[in-house]
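User: Can you predict the 3D structure for this chain?
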Amino acid sequence: MKRLVMKTLGAIIMLAFIMPFGALIYESLNLDSWLYIINDKKTYDASITTIVTALLTLFLNIILGTPAANILARKDFKGKNVIQGLIFLPLIIPSFVSSMGIYFTFIRLGLSETLIGVVFIHTVLTLPYYIHSTTIGYKTLNENYDIVGKMLGANRMQRFFYITLPHIMPSVIAGGSLVIIVSFAQYLNTLIIGGGKVLTIPILMFPYISGGNIKVGAVYSVLYIFINFSLLFILERKVKRIYNKKMTGDIVW
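Assistant: Here is the predicted structure, written as structure tokens:
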């Protein structure tokens, strides 16, 4: 009886996740809608902008978030809790409020309605996810490994790529995946900072879903999901391939 209840519960949960996708696929089965988005130049512009924005956001997260995670995980200093609170503040404050504050600053700096401005706001909103994930990886790394590597003559870069990076790689991949997913999903913040001039797939898709042609909106949704998963898949495989070559000595830093 207990097994039957568990199976039934599992089936209900699966249906709850599958049904929305089933409805989406059903609505997207329209040749005219596919031809419409294929022949629309905005589709290609928005796709490229979405991918470039996500990759630049990921790059900034890695550059800024990895050292920050290292310090937060390994160092104890005065004001550490305050800094951690500030890092996670974008997750606590409603994104609309933070985006409006940043928007007024970007106007003065000339970054509003630009791709760089959109990348910066995406970085602010995704950095807490990346830092939190990478911090967990650093906390499980014994500092003695780095000391031993130094004693054996490895320089700082060699110690990072051969000792630290292999250990924190799962956390980096997890954090990077969250960065891409969250960056892809940004609509309101992209609209505010981009001013409607920085066109991404969510910006292009939303008017059709909210009251336009629902079938075209469904096609854009399918395209959005396909690009998102494809980018995650390619990046993960690429990172693992570079990492494996590095460990076998095929790449020399």
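Residues 214-248 form the longest helix (35 residues). The mean pLDDT is 82.
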